[in-house]
Amino acid sequence: DCVLTTPPYTYEWFTIEEITGVHVITAIALDNHGEDGIDRATIFLKDQGTVTDYDDNIYNWTRIGDQRWMVENLKSTHYADGTEIPFVESTYGWENLSDSDKGYCYFENSSSNNDVYGALYNWAAVMNGQSSDDSIQIQGVCPTGWHLPSDTEWKELEVFLGLDTLNVDNIGWRGFNEGGKLKEEGTEHWDSPNTGATNIKDFTALPGGYRIYYGAFNELGFGAYFWSATEFNNTQSWKRYLHADEKSIGRKMELKNSGFSVRCIED
Fold first, then answer.
1. What torsion, rounded to 10 degrees, do the Cα atoms 212, 215, 221, 226 define?
2. Residue 67 is assigned to a structural domain of this protein
3. Is residue 192 part of a domain?
4. pLDDT tens, N- to C-terminus, the chain (267 residues)
5. Which domain holds residue 154?
6. How many domains does the chain fold into?
């Protein structure tokens, strides 16, 4: 509580140590005749911050449910220990990567696409030699203190957004508008009509497209594709995807030598 008796009647509230969630501020004005006036303001404090990778790229993050997610696509060219990730530019070089060969690239080999949409990594690069295991956190390509989300952690996010648990293990498009809740609003980056996009949880999914296993690029502006840390079999792993003309969220297995975007989740 704070009582102000001398003009100007101003008060500063520093929220850095406050708990997140809804806070109601009540202001009561009392004049010399004992008459009062009351006004209330409702404020929602979000749990947000930044994390920096080895290359000094700074990423914003936000809390969604019980998880903290990066709200930008990864741009790292080095692992957290400083080891360089192999940059694979040519079509020939990409199509000749084995399932264990690491590689990353920029869409159509343009660094300006990296500035907006981040890099595209194959699964060997995102895992950095670690084995798929949903019972442990796989740091892989992520900064220290963060890890690559498992298929299970993606499901947790989807259920929090409203996906029915009966459908969470399905393959293909699932749910109603869970994908729209993750997509950046508008058509600055997404192709029209960007169906159902509300970005209600500030995830800000961007359509960085993907690189096909034989080296071609596809769907910049139309599709967002994200790796999970969970293997399906020796040649495929689970992915998530969002499209400009769809508001649900997709789950499928994909060839490991494809190039997708990465979102990291805090340990």
1. 50
2. yes
3. yes
4. 666 666 766 766 555 455 565 556 677 777 777 666 777 766 654 579 999 999 999 999 999 999 999 999 999 999 999 999 999 999 999 999 999 999 999 999 999 999 999 999 999 999 999 999 999 999 999 999 999 999 999 999 999 999 999 999 999 999 999 999 999 999 999 999 999 999 999 999 999 999 999 999 999 999 999 999 999 999 999 999 999 999 999 999 999 999 999 999 999
5. 48-266
6. 1
